[in-house]
């Protein structure tokens, strides 16, 4: 096989580039799924904060008992958001695996 002066280097470069494609694909797919997951979780948490802020009235700000109730509702909402996020991890893993086959 005649490859010329740079033939072998070019073949190695081409092989390296072709071998790198699956890694780039896996990285891109995984990063996109993680970004989507983080965005969903962040939106859910922001909604919890908005809901909690919407519950506060001027007379509540000096009432520890009422503010504690708002805080409890916020924490429950955040807990639900995190649980839903955790439930979404298995489908996310499946989507990644499917795209990488």
TrEMBL record:
Pfam families in alphabetical order: DUF842
Entry superkingdom: Eukaryota
Family: Belongs to the FAM136 family.
Protein's UniProt name: Uncharacterized protein
